[in-house]
């Protein structure tokens, strides 16, 4: 038997799954370019040679306090690996440890528990530093209105700090073209009103083309208005290791990171494959985000067998914006509650979802066109029956949740 290994369960073990196939099947691993992880010295050099700005230690001179804004587990950014370098810079600038705040800029996502924070920030940082999160019931400070008409309300914990630095990742993003940078402010540390207006009225998209769209430019303007002094952005390999690190001005560093990401995450499609396998890694902590990796399934021929491998360890996930939007809609329509609609199973499934962490009802809630299978042996038996006496072409897209297609 032939074997192909893929990763799953980001943040929850980053487990390797071995996919087996008959020896005479045509296997094709459609992976983005292989890159080695940066060394400690290489990462420190990125902080000593920032892009478009002075060093953090220079910019933070004379500041009484600082905030490091990081993303959450919905993003694969290994913030724990870069925050120690930021702390070195802040200490060099003379900012004492007790005046440094770590702020989780996750917009409308769920609050993070201690174990989540340790995974993202590292145990030492969680133990030593004060950590706050973007609670939507916090006090938000009105900073002004962007030129695109978005009112900017920023969490008070962030605005009360004199020096602000963001930590994020850079990969193809359906709204902001490429993620990271100014997005740490909108939606990261903004109020629900600001987040809702920005997502509801601004044009986005274009992750393989022009990096600059309305949503991206608005987030960067908002970041300037909020006083974000700089950005730290990462490019990752297919094992969630840092292969590129970009430190500096929030726009200049982002553009450099996006150019690197454009090369790092590109893959060539195989549209004629008989079996197409995509993965939600490294964004498969829950079922909705894991679905981001399913895009290769949509580029397959109609008769192809489609398989999505995604752990979905946190199940159906949580996003408070949906809850608040439904509440607002009920108020506008003068309704007390939403209509209860049962989930209906369909015998006509479109793709297989392979996970050992969730149940059928959770999959039905998020992926209504999928059938859950919990054993690769079970899937392989199905494939063998369908392609008996054939030599099917198999396309496997590891880490497709951060990849994007090129011709």
CATH architectural label of the largest domain: 3-Layer(aba) Sandwich
Find the CATH superfamily of the largest domain. Answer: LarA, N-terminal domain
Return the structural class: alpha/beta
| Gyration radius, in Å | 22 Å
Number of helices: 14
Count the beta strands: 20
CATH class of the largest domain: Alpha Beta
Largest sheet: 6 strands, parallel
Instruction: Determine the oligomeric state from the structure.
Output: single chain
What do you see in this structure?
This protein has 407 residues and is of the alpha/beta class. The protein folds into two domains: 2-32 and 266-406, LarA, C-terminal domain (2-enoyl-CoA Hydratase, Chain A, domain 1, Alpha-Beta Complex); 40-264, Rossmann fold (3-Layer(aba) Sandwich), CATH 3.40.50.11440. 29% of the residues lie in helices and 24% in strands. It is built from 14 helices and 20 strands. The protein has helices spanning 40-48, 56-59, 79-92, 114-121, 123-128, 156-159, 192-201, 214-226, 252-264, 287-290, 295-298, 320-332, 360-366, 376-386, and strands spanning 2-8, 15-21, 26-29, 66-70, 100-104, 130-133, 140-145, 151-155, 163-169, 172-173, 177-178, 230-236, 242-248, 266-268, 275-279, 305-309, 351-354, 370-373, 393-397, 404-406. The strands form six sheets. The protein has a six-stranded parallel sheet. β1 (2-8) and β2 form a beta hairpin. α3 packs across α4. The longest helix is centred in the N-terminal third of the chain and has 14 residues, at 79-92. The protein is globular. 47% of the residues are buried. The mean pLDDT is 96.
């Amino acid at each position: 038997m032939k074997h192909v290994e893929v990763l799953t369960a980001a943040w929850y073990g980053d487990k390797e799954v071995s996919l087996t196939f008959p020896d005479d099947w045509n296997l094709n691993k459609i992976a983005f370019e292989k890159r080695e992880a940066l060394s400690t010295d290489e990462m420190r050099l990125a902080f000593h040679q920032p892009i478009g700005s002075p060093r953090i230690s220079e910019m933070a001179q004379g500041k009484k306090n600082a905030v490091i804004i990081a993303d959450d587990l919905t993003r694969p950014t290994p913030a724990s690996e870069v925050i120690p370098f930021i702390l070195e810079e802040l200490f060099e600038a003379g900012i004492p440890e007790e005046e440094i705040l770590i702020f989780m800029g996750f917009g409308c996502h769920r609050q993070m528990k201690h174990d989540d924070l340790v995974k993202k920030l590292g145990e030492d940082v969680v133990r030593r530093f004060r950590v706050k999160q973007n609670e939507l019931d916090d006090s938000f400070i009105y900073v002004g209105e962007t030129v695109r008409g978005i009112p900017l309300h920023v969490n008070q914990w962030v605005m009360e700090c004199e020096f602000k630095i963001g930590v994020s990742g850079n990969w193809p993003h359906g709204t902001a073209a490429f993620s990271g940078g100014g997005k740490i402010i909108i939606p990261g540390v903004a109020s629900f009103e600001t987040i809702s207006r920005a997502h509801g009225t601004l044009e986005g998209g274009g992750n393989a083309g022009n990096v600059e769209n309305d949503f991206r430019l608005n987030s960067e303007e908002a970041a300037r208005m909020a006083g974000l002094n700089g950005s730290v952005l990462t490019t990752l390999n297919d094992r969630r290791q840092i292969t590129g690190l970009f430190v500096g001005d929030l726009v200049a560093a982002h553009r450099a990171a996006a150019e690197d990401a454009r090369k790092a995450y590109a893959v060539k499609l195989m549209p004629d494959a008989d079996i197409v396998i995509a993965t939600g890694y490294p964004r498969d902590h829950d079922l909705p985000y894991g679905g981001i990796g399913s895009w290769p399934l949509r580029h397959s021929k109609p008769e192809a067998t489609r398989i999505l491998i995604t752990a979905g360890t946190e199940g159906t996930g949580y996003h408070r914006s949906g809850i608040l939007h439904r509440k607002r809609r009920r108020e506008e329509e003068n309704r007390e509650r939403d209509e209860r609609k049962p989930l209906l199973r369909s015998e006509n499934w479109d793709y297989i979802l392979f996970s050992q962490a969730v149940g059928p009802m959770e999959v039905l809630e998020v992926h209504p066109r999928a059938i859950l299978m919990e054993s690769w042996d079970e899937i392989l038996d199905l494939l063998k029956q369908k392609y008996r006496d054939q030599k099917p072409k198999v396309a496997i897209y590891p880490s497709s949740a951060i990849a994007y297609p090129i011709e």
